[in-house]
Design brief:
The protein has helices at about 1-25, 35-50, 115-125, 150-160, 210-230, 275-285, 310-320, 335-340, 365-385; strands at about 55, 65-70, 75-85, 105, 110, 135-145, 165-170, 180-185, 185-195, 200, 240-250, 255, 260-265, 290-300, 300-305, 325-330, 345-350, 365. It is elongated and about 80 Å long. The chain has two domains: about 1-185 and about 300-385, Aminopeptidase; about 185-300, Alpha-Beta Plaits (2-Layer Sandwich), CATH 3.30.70.360. It is built from nine helices and 18 strands. The chain starts with a helix and ends with a helix. α3 (about 115-125) packs across α9. The strands form five sheets. A six-stranded mixed β-sheet has the order 1-2-6-3-7-17, sandwiched between helices. The longest helix has 24 residues, at about 1-25.
């Protein structure tokens, strides 16, 4: 009976869910440069309309407000639903079939930047009050800065401590195709800076060519990539290391005195950012290659037991709805690292195909959205009954 009741309520409210997601897509919230404010204001206004206690959090950025909403129950037992307001930029708008900020609904899909990552999920979170009845408390956290690994969610977690809630479970509603991501890889971004000595290109022996040193470093990185595949984790696949940026040279007839290489190094549970930085440092030192390594940023890996209450509950709901779902590793980094680090049983789960995120003609299946809304209602009811 609970399933039928929630299906009915979602059906009654689904057009509003869809239109709210479309409206948010029409409000650009690109990051960079960090223009989430207008979308945050819309979310805040809509949440008040839906009956939540609603707050702006002007931390850590005064001009980029975050939003927290609370639906208090008789019990302080709480589920935290988390998502990010910011999106990556749209890139070349002429490459899109649809206007990237049209929020157009066509052929069973909702289109636009942020459709799958992750304004559709934000809308589902916002409307959960319409189709659940529970004794527990529902806490919604709408963060800024996720796309650039900024401290949005971590700041919110500190801010909400004033409510003295017992946050038992956390859901980060990134697109997983409704698969249950109990694990996620972490990341560290490293800049390798090579110093040379500039001279006129007609007398190269008078200088030290930083690009040629970088060539040797690149060879070591390629060998390192082969080595780290042996570190495979039983559930999260292998670590990876990718060169993502190179910057060198000032003019065609000048021997370059510097070269910078940026690496994206994905971490499996058990690895740390300092450990992998040290690994590379030792390899370069062994070959007497003089360079500086700087950590630009990092995300911690997450490892939640597949036998925990939260994943088992979601999988039971998926089974009840006849939707195939299993536990997976989320290959990207998410704000779940912050929630999990606060001793909250948390994972990543949400509607949509991750391959459409950050892409031209980003879109999400409307059917996926509806299934996610129904499933979320069932999960919240089961966890907080």
């Amino acid at each position: 009976m609970v399933l039928n009741d929630i299906v009915r309520k979602v059906e009654c409210n689904f057009n509003e869910i869809l239109q709210t997601a479309s409206k948010m897509i029409k409000i650009p919230s690109r990051n960079p440069p960090g223009e989430e404010k207008r979308c945050a204001e819309y979310i805040h206004s809509k949440l008040k309309e839906l009956g939540y206690e609603t707050y702006f959090v002007n931390e850590p950025f005064i001009d980029r407000p975050q939003v927290v909403a609370l639906l208090k129950g008789k019990s302080s037992d709480t589920i935290l639903l988390n998502g990010h307001i910011d999106t990556v930029p749209e890139g070349d708008a002429n490459s899109w079939i649809m206007d990237p900020f049209s929020g157009e609904i066509k052929d069973g899909f909702l289109y636009g930047r942020g459709a799958v990552d992750m304004k559709s999920s934000l809308s589902i979170m916002m409307h959960v009050a319409k189709f659940v009845e529970t004794n527990g408390t529902i806490l919604l956290a709408f963060a800024v800065g996720e796309e650039r690994a900024e401290p949005g969610t971590s700041t919110l977690l500190s801010w909400i401590k004033k409510f003295n809630l017992k946050i038992k479970y956390g859901l980060v509603m990134e697109p997983t195709g409704l698969q249950v991501a109990t694990h996620q890889r972490g990341a560290v971004w490293l800049k390798i800076r090579i110093k040379g000595r500039a001279t006129h290109a007609s007398t190269p022996n008078e200088g030290i060519n930083a690009i040629e040193i970088a060539h040797n470093i690149m060879y070591i990185i390629q060998e390192y990539k082969k080595q780290i595949t042996k570190k495979s984790h039983k559930f999260t696949d292998t670590p990876t290391c990718s060169v993502t940026m190179i910057n060198a040279g000032i003019k065609e007839n000048v021997i370059p005195d510097r070269c910078e290489i940026v690496l994206d190094r994905r971490l499996v549970p058990g690895e740390t950012k300092n450990e992998v930085t040290k690994e590379l440092r030792l390899l370069f030192d062994k070959k007497k290659l003089n360079c500086e390594i700087t950590q630009l940023g990092s995300r911690k890996p997450v490892e939640l037991s597949n036998n925990s209450v939260l994943p088992r509950t979601i999988l039971d709901v998926m089974d009840q709805m006849n939707i195939q779902s299993s536990t997976i590793c989320f290959t990207g980094a998410t704000d779940n690292e912050h929630i999990f680090s606060n001793s909250i049983e948390s994972l990543v789960w949400g509607p949509g195909d991750l391959s459409f995120a950050h892409s031209v003609d980003e879109r999400i299946s409307i059917n996926d959205m509806k299934n996610a809304a129904i499933a979320l209602g069932l999960v919240v009811n089961k966890l907080l009954e």
